[in-house]
Amino acid sequence: MPITDWPENDRPREKMLRQGPAALSDAELLAVLLRVGVTGKSAVDLARELLGHFGSVTGLMHASPHEVAKIKGLGPAKALQFQAALQLARRALDERLREPAALSSPTQVADFLRLELGGERAEVFMVLFLDAQNRLIRAERMFSGTLTQTSVYPREVAKAALLHHAASVILAHNHPSGVAEPSQADVALTATLRSALALIDVRVLDHFVVTAGQARSMAQAGLI
């Protein structure tokens, strides 16, 4: 049944106008972006199929246009629309992180990192460079690797910290396996980076391990 035949209170756009976007499910929000379904499927049905196929909102938003175009009734243009929505969300969070005291909120940092790294299929190591007031100077992807590991070079991190005149950093990397628990190798790498950066008077404030559904703070876990 097309959404236009649904009771008005159940239609995603009308529901969003009446109750706000937070009241909608992931599938309903995605249906608002899709606008229309395909033969035999409403936009909500198609949204549920997409979420099931890609595993999550994050997985869908990081999918390539070629991958999305494999879904019947969709094409590269729709994938570009999803990626545009993701990029707007990233930029909005990036702007918030540049506000005074924003980085005092681990939740905002975690949300930003999940958008940046949660959908990556290989490991990516990112560094957030901060000034003396803990304001974001730059978020930089520094290293990438395979499904299970990436090589991180402390010397390159230190060079970048000096280049950006950073007073401190927040480290982050993703686990494509979906397990956000820091490994012993993660703990050891953090200690190595702390020692290297201390030589140039740059503090490591935290190290986040990121998956599609979670960003785990090593500082909150007592590992830093």
Question: What's the number of helices?
Answer: 9
> In which order are the strands of the major sheet placed?
2-1-3-4-5
* Low-pLDDT regions: none
Count of distinct strands: 5
Q: What sort of overall outline do the alpha carbons produce when their principal axes are compared?
A: elongated
What's the Cα radius of gyration?
20 Å
Structure class: alpha+beta
Overall pLDDT metric = 84
Question: How much β-strand is present in the residues?
Answer: 15-25%
Offer a concise description of the structure.
The protein is of the alpha+beta class. The protein has 9 helices and 5 strands, in the order H-H-H-H-H-H-H-E-E-H-E-H-E-E. The chain is 44% helix and 15% strand.
Question: In words, what does this structure look like?
Answer:
- There is one protein chain.
- The chain is α+β, with helices and mostly antiparallel strands.
- The chain contains nine helices and five strands; from the N terminus they run αααααααββαβαββ.
- The protein has helices spanning 12-19, 26-34, 43-54, 57-61, 65-69, 76-97, 106-117, 154-163, 184-198, and strands at 124-130, 136-144, 168-174, 203-210, 215-217.
- The chain has a five-stranded mixed sheet.
- Helix 6 (76-97) packs antiparallel against helix 7 (106-117).
- It is elongated and about 65 Å long.
- The termini are far apart.
- The mean pLDDT is 84.
